[in-house]
Amino acid sequence: MSVQPDPQVVAGLDVWETLPVGQQPQWPDATEVRRVRDRLASLPPLVFAGEADALRAQLAAASRGEAFVLQGGDCAETFAEATADNIRNKIKTILQMAVVLTYGASLPVVKMGRMAGQYAKPRSSDVETRDGVTLPAFRGDIINGFEFTPEARTPDPDRLLEAYHTSASTLNLIRAFTTGGFASLLRVHEWNRGFTANPAYSRYEQLAAEIDRAIRFMAACGADVDALRAVDFYSAHEGLLLDYERPLTRIDSRSGLPYDCSAHFLWIGERTRQLDSGHVDFFSRVQNPLGVKLGPTTTGDDAIALMDRLNPTGEPGRLTFVTRMGAGKVRDLLPALVEKVTADGRPVTWVCDPMHGNGITSASGYKTRRFTDVMDEVAGFFEVHRALGTVPGGLHVELTGDDVTEVLGGTEEIDDEGLARRYETLVDPRLNHQQSLEMAFQVVELLRRA
Ligand SMILES: O=C[C@H](O)[C@H](O)COP(=O)(O)O
Ligand SMILES: C=C(OP(=O)(O)O)C(=O)O
Ligand SMILES: [Mn+2]
C-alpha cells in the first residue's frame, strides 16, 4: 500500500519553522503548543477559499482605480470587547464611511474589518517595566493578558483556541449583520443611531437623506433595489502568530492549493517583512490576497524583492502594499517606491495606513496621534499618486465605533487633557466614531480630485 504524501507538507507550509521568525512569544511549554495546534487543525476553517478569491478580484479592481479599499478596526481586538454592541458599532462605522465614500466619489468600496482575528501584536520591546518590576510585554490577547502580573503576562497557548472561538463568533455576527438586512442601504439612516450628535454626524444625516431620495427614485422607476440589501464584508488581520496561521491553513478542495482560512486577507507587518523571514516564506505559499506594510526605511529594491517572493507572476489583486511613512516623510519617500514598482509592471494595490508612522507621546504620557497628521499623510499619499499618474487604492485605519478619546483633534478637538476621559486601547490609539466619519468626508474630496 502506498502512503500518499501530505499535500500541506508538499506545499512547504512548514518551511517557516527553519527560518528566522520575529515577534513570536516565548512559550513556556512546547508540548502544549503542539496540542493546541493539533486541535486548531481539526476545527473548521473560518472562511471559505472562494471568498478569498472574490476579494482578490475586488482588490484587483482597486489597483486599477475601479474600486476603493477601506480596511478598519482595532489595533488590537480583545476577547472582552467582542460584544454585540462593540461589533455592531464598528460595523456601522465602517458602513457609514463606505457609504460616504461610495456616494461622494461614485466608486464601489471594498470593505474589510481589522476584525475577527486581529489579536497578535508585534512590540518594540519584549518586556515592560513598571515601578522597577519587569515582565513580558503584552503581545495581544491571543498570547498573554494585559494585566501587569507574572501570571497574566506569561504566554498561554490555550489563548489560541479562545482567539479562534472569539473570531468565529465575531465573524458569525458580521455575516449576520452584513447579509441579514442590517447593512441594507435601505437602512442607511439607522447606522447613525446610537452615536453622539456632532458635526460629522449631521453631515451624514444629510447625505443619508439624499441617498434615501435617490433609492426611492430608482425604485419608482422600476429598478430592483433588492440588490442593496446585502454587502460583502471581509475579515483581515496581521498574519503574525504562525502557530495560529499554520493550523488554520487548509487545502482548497476545488483547486488543491493552500489557503490560510483564519481570514480572507492577511498582511505581513513592518517588523516581520524581511525577505528571509518565516513570515514571507509562509505567506508566499498560501493563495489569499496579501498585504505588506511598508515603512519609511523600505527601498524600491525591497519592494521589488517582495513582489518576487509574494507575487512573482504579477497576479492582479494578490499583493497590496500598505504604506505607512509618516506625514512628514510621505511626500519625500513614497514617490521613489511607487516609481520603481510601477516600472516593474506587475500590479499592486496601493493602500495608505496613516496611523503607524504618526505616533507621538502626549505631554500627559499617552501614546497618541494627531488627527491633522493622520489626514496630512492621507493627503500626501493622494498627492504623490496623482503626480505619478498611479492609483491611490485605499485606506487602512485603526478605528472604533465608540466615542473614545485616543487621537488628538478632530472637530470635537480632543486635547491633551481630554485624552484621559476615555482612553481604552491596549496598544495603539484609534479614531473614534466621529473622527472616522470626518476622515471619510475629507477623503471624498481627495478622491474627487484624484
Ligand atoms: O500596532 C502596532 C504595533 O504593535 C505597535 O505600534 C507597537 O507598539 P509599541 O511600540 O508600543 O510596542
Ligand atoms: C503593527 C501594525 O502596523 P505596522 O506593522 O505597520 O507597524 C498594525 O497595523 O497594528
Ligand atoms: Mn497598531
UniProtKB/TrEMBL annotation:
Gene3D superfamilies: Aldolase class I (3.20.20.70). GO terms for molecular function: 3-deoxy-7-phosphoheptulonate synthase activity. Its EC number is 2.5.1.54. Keywords: Amino-acid biosynthesis, Aromatic amino acid biosynthesis, Transferase. It is an enzyme of class 2 (transferase). Pathway: Metabolic intermediate biosynthesis; chorismate biosynthesis; chorismate from D-erythrose 4-phosphate and phosphoenolpyruvate: step 1/7. InterPro entries: Aldolase_TIM, DAHP_synth_2. It catalyses: D-erythrose 4-phosphate + phosphoenolpyruvate + H2O = 7-phospho-2-dehydro-3-deoxy-D-arabino-heptonate + phosphate. It comes from the Bacteria. The keyword Amino-acid biosynthesis applies. Belongs to the class-II DAHP synthase family. This is Phospho-2-dehydro-3-deoxyheptonate aldolase.
